[in-house]
Amino acid sequence: MSNLQWPELIIFTVLFALVTVLGFMAARWQRGGGLDHLDEWGLGGRKFGSWITWFLLGGDLYTAYTFVAVPALVFSAGALGLYALPYTIVVYPIVLLPALRMWSVSRVRGYVTPADFVRGRFGSPILALLIAITGIVATMPYIALQLVGLEAVLRTMGINGSGIVGHLPLLVAFVILAFYTYQSGLRAPALIAFVKDILIYIVILVAIIYLPSKLGGWAHIFDTAVDKFDKTPSKADGILLNANNQLQYATLALGSALALFLYPHSLTSVLASRGRSVIKRNMVALPAYSLVLGLLALLGYVAITAGVKPLTNAATGKADGNTIVPVLFDNQFSSWFAGIAFAAIGIGALVPAAIMSIAAANLWTRNIYKEYIRKNATPKEEAKQAKLASLVVKLGAVAVIILIDPQFSIDLQLIGGVLILQTLPAVALALYTRWFHRWGLIAGWVVGIGWGLIMLYGIPNPASGKQHFGGSALAMGNMSIFGWHPFAGSQVQIYVGFVALIANLVVAAIVTVIARQMKIFNGTDDTNPKDYLADEHDKDLRPIGVH
Q1: In the structure, what pLDDT confidence band is assigned to residue 464 with cuts at 50, 70 and 90?
Q2: Are residues 285 and 293 in contact, defined by beta-carbon separation less than 8 angstroms?
Q3: pLDDT of residue 47
Q4: Distance between the two ends of the chain, CA-based, in angstroms?
Q5: Hey, what's the torsion of the CAs at 397, 402, 407, 413, to 10 degrees?
Q6: Residue 167, helix vs strand vs coil
Q7: C-alpha angle 137/57/99, rounded to 5°?
Q8: How far is CA 355 from CA 102, 141, 495, 524, in A?
Q9: Distance CA 514, CA 512 (A)
Q10: Among residues 506, 501, 157, 484, which one has the least CA distance to residue 342?
Q11: What phi and psi, each to the nearest 5 degrees, are found at residue 273?
Q12: Which of 159-186 are b and which e, b meaning 16 or more Cβ less than 10 Å from the residue's Cβ?
């Protein structure tokens, strides 16, 4: 604590205090009714317009992952870290039509969560429960990634210690998130997202123009990166992809694109919008964030040229790669602007963490508490349960950081992606077809989740010395199918989530064919074709909150 950077810490604290106040004030912003209703607390009344939705989705999808995790991976592995750029480009055309259909059916039927849709579509409380549990568990590592980003900033400003002091940022983030999320619901991150995005755009524009000019230009920056990677023993790094990581890059990009809008927090932001036209406009405008993401990723190469050395984590005694960008800003910017940059990262962590905890809380309330514990829960009881559940989810995120400790913080998001990808058949494909039998979907989920976790468990972490849950990249030579090694000796790597999803779909299809041949009842569909076509001008839309 003796090396506190006081100018940076003061500016950071002032801006952080500002958004905290906004978080509490948001309880009265655009409120159509009391916050004792899940539609109001968890979906902002379902009436956010184009601008609010754009900032909310931007704050939801572009997070500490963008500012901390992606540049750290580029700094350490090179071109592989740039997989995030094509993934955020292709995701919007992929999800445009499914997002519109999900909004329409959810608005008509009063659905709040993707598990609500699955429950109505297949009439299966078991399948809906599995989807809800997957969403909650997959969200915790993603929230953990946000807290890691905040922790990295505070360490750079001198708050770095062992024991409880070493994890002080987690406790601070938990308390702040807990209070204003409980008080204001989804309106808090929606309002704060305006400040967060303005700060991020200012910081990245300054960084991408000022830093290269100070360090000798982009040609010199890329030359320095080439020199660094040429001297490492790894065969998977470099500013160009090679035969060992090309498949990993492609499956990471595609798998991440498929997973992004399966996350409950992404769908929460979509369902909070007031109409299909709002969603359409946002899918056109959101790629502007992809440009920012690409520029931020290049800061990993800039950090190499600047000779940045990651800080040592006093709790573990090892280098903390998540501090790469904060240390770069600390070394190259004046204290006052570094404080602004640190505030942008910190606020960029809290906004999505709040949305994620709200989305997970909605799942608990609608698909576990109301379905299995208190079927006759009133709207006020639902809202109270959601508020309490949002606190528990944040505690789970803290536990994820302490227990998993991956090599790169980005693996926290990728591990969650492995899990949430297994909901694709029941959520995304079911928007277009009910061909899959509900028991086929359940069997596919069991295989996908089970095999995915087994593969993740077998991936070591060279940096921490841990033997399990060290990342999401599987060497195909280590892939085993009931003891059979089809790619023995191969050094090519692949994203675990993609492999698990293929297994999920194959098993779901096989069990579906068997169930149909045996004429096993497939449940009752509570939806009808008109639900998927309704728009905000449809006079047949039910009032908000009707279930």
Answers
A1: low
A2: no
A3: 84
A4: 53
A5: -10
A6: coil
A7: 80
A8: 19, 14, 26, 32
A9: 5
A10: 157
A11: -75, 160
A12: bbeeeeebbbbbebbbebbbebbbbbbb
The dihedral over CA atoms of 399, 441, 123, 37, expressed in degrees to the nearest 10, equals 30
What three-state secondary structure class fits 461? strand
- Alpha-carbon distance 280 to 101, whole Å? 12
Do 119 and 284 touch, CB atoms closer than 8 A?
no
Confidence of residue 483 (pLDDT cuts 50, 70, 90): low
Q: Tokens 């790169």 — which residue? A: 408
What's the whole-model pTM score?
A: 0.90
Give the length of the chain.
Answer: 547
Beta bridge partners of 417: none
Tokens of 386: 């959601």
Cα 518 from chain centre: 40
**Taking Cα atoms as reference points, which of 279, 265, 267 lies closest to residue 106?**
267
Q: How far apart (Å, rounded) are the C-alpha atoms in residues 17 and 4?
A: 19
Which residue blocks in 242-373 are alpha helix, DSSP H? 246-260, 264-271, 276-285, 287-297, 299-305, 324-332, 335-364
What is the rounded CA–CA span in Å between residue 259 and residue 91?
9
Rounded distance between C-alpha atoms, residue 495 and residue 254, angstroms: 10
Contacts of 3 (CB under 8 A, 6+ apart): 158
pLDDT class of 515 with cuts at 50, 70, 90: very high
In contact, 407 and 179? CB cutoff 8 Å: no
* Structure-token pair, residue 447: 């295989």
Residue type, position 268, single letter: T
Which amino acid is located at 490 in the chain?
A: S
* CA distance linking residue 191 with residue 29, whole number of Å: 8
257-316 pLDDT, tens digit per residue, is: 999 899 999 999 999 998 899 999 999 888 888 888 888 899 999 999 999 998 887 666
Single-letter amino acid code for the residue at 479:
M
Sign of CA dihedral 293, 297, 298, 303: positive
Give the number of other Cβ atoms within 10 Å of residue 280's Cβ: 14
Whose tokens are 């305006």? That residue is 194
Q: In 423-541, where do the E strands start and end?
A: 473-475, 493-495
Residue 27 pLDDT grade (very low, low, confident, very high; cuts 50, 70, 90): low
pLDDT score of 303: 96
User: What is the distance, to the nearest Å, from the Cα of residue 351 to the centroid of all Cα atoms in its chain?
Assistant: 12
Eight-class DSSP state of 542: P
Question: Contacts by 331-336 with C-beta closer than 8 Å and gap 24+?
Answer: 331/306, 332/210, 332/211, 332/214, 332/306, 335/5, 335/7, 335/8, 335/11, 336/7, 336/8, 336/11
Closest CA to 188 of 51, 53, 44, 398: 44
